[in-house]
From TrEMBL:
Residues 1-21 form the signal peptide. InterPro entries: PhnD (IPR005770), Solute-binding_3/MltF_N (IPR001638). The gene is phnD. GO terms for cellular component: ATP-binding cassette (ABC) transporter complex. Residues 31-259 form the Solute-binding protein family 3/N-terminal domain. Belongs to the phosphate/phosphite/phosphonate binding protein family. The keyword Signal applies. Pfam families: Phosphonate-bd. This is Phosphate/phosphite/phosphonate ABC transporter substrate-binding protein. SMART domains: PBPb (SM00062). It comes from Gemella morbillorum.
């Protein structure tokens, strides 16, 4: 009887230890959260980035999960709190996270023109009689998000330079995505939209008549490129690994192509902190307190 009891006890002990071991290994499994702003349909954006996240995870030796939120600031807050480890974000979002959470800019993306930057652009319909920024007085304008460099901050400054008071001279709304702004313009719900220079090329498949129906009205000065920002909670060794993995990925045509298609990124280079000071100057013009944006 004693032998039977010992045998049963041993079996239970083995299974218990195995279960504990399995739980322990599950707990220890490292997952890195990659944050991206909802510049277009959020669910599709996450799905489209999955192959990139998988390739990056293989290089890092950990699982990489893609995260987005309902607004740009939601992603920035995630990076600041450490619930999101790093992000591929627009320059204004990068500056916000730098100011509010002491994050670090790891790399800056090179645009389709080969430069570490791009231009914001204001678009109108081709059948519109709007010929200049001044003609937008009394019109309806769609911006993307209050924390979007090309979708609000820079175009807003352009309108102010043209003598337009954003709160008095136009009626504006935030669409929540560049694709949503395009839809508003094509539907004639607004007279103009603010976006980035290559947005027509980017969304031609989704909106087949885009090239025929929409034209650019005015471009901004050069904006720093899409930036890789890392949380202050990530240790230096992991920061270095993420940076190296992304530099390796830029040599892989298929994987890099995902970033080119989604963010117009054709490669990476070291960020020049001085270029981000232009974002701060434009923010001042727009009366934006970078430390208080929520």
């Amino acid at each position: 009887m004693k032998k039977i009891f010992l045998t049963i006890f041993s079996i239970i002990l083995v299974f218990s230890l195995a279960a504990c071991s399995q739980k322990s290994s599950t707990k220890e499994e490292k997952v890195l959260k990659l944050g991206v702003v909802p510049s277009s349909n959020s669910e599709k954006l996450v799905d489209d980035l999955e192959p990139f996240a998988k390739a990056l995870g293989e290089k890092l030796g950990v699982k990489v999960e893609v995260f987005t939120a309902s607004s740009y600031i939601g992603v920035i807050e995630g990076i600041g709190s450490g619930s999101v480890d790093f992000g591929i974000v627009p320059p204004f979002s990068a500056v916000l996270s730098n100011k509010q959470s002491n994050t670090k800019n790891l790399l800056v993306g090179k645009s389709l023109n080969g430069k570490p930057g791009y231009h914001a652009e204001i678009f109108v319909r081709k059948d519109s009689n709007i010929k200049s920024l001044e003609d937008l007085k009394g019109k309806k304008v769609a911006f993307v998000d209050p924390s979007s460099a090309s979708g609000y901050v820079y175009p807003g400054a352009m309108l102010k330079d043209a003598g337009i008071d954003l709160n008095k001279d136009i009626k504006y709304q935030f669409s929540g995505g560049h694709d949503k702004s395009i839809q508003l313009l094509l539907n004639k719900d607004v007279d103009a939209i603010a976006s980035y220079e290559n947005v027509i090329k980017k969304y031609t498949k989704e909106f087949p008549t885009l090239k025929e129906d929409v034209r650019g009205l005015a471009k901004s000065e050069l904006i720093p490129g899409v930036t890789v920002v890392v949380s202050n909670n990530v240790d230096e060794q992991l920061k270095s690994k993420i940076k190296q993995a992304l530099l390796e990925i830029q040599k892989e045509k298929e994987t890099l192509g995902i970033l080119t298609n989604l963010f117009n990124i054709t490669g990476f280079e070291e960020p020049d902190d001085n270029t981000y000071k232009t974002v701060e100057k434009i923010s001042e013009k727009m009366n934006i307190d970078l430390k208080k944006v929520k």
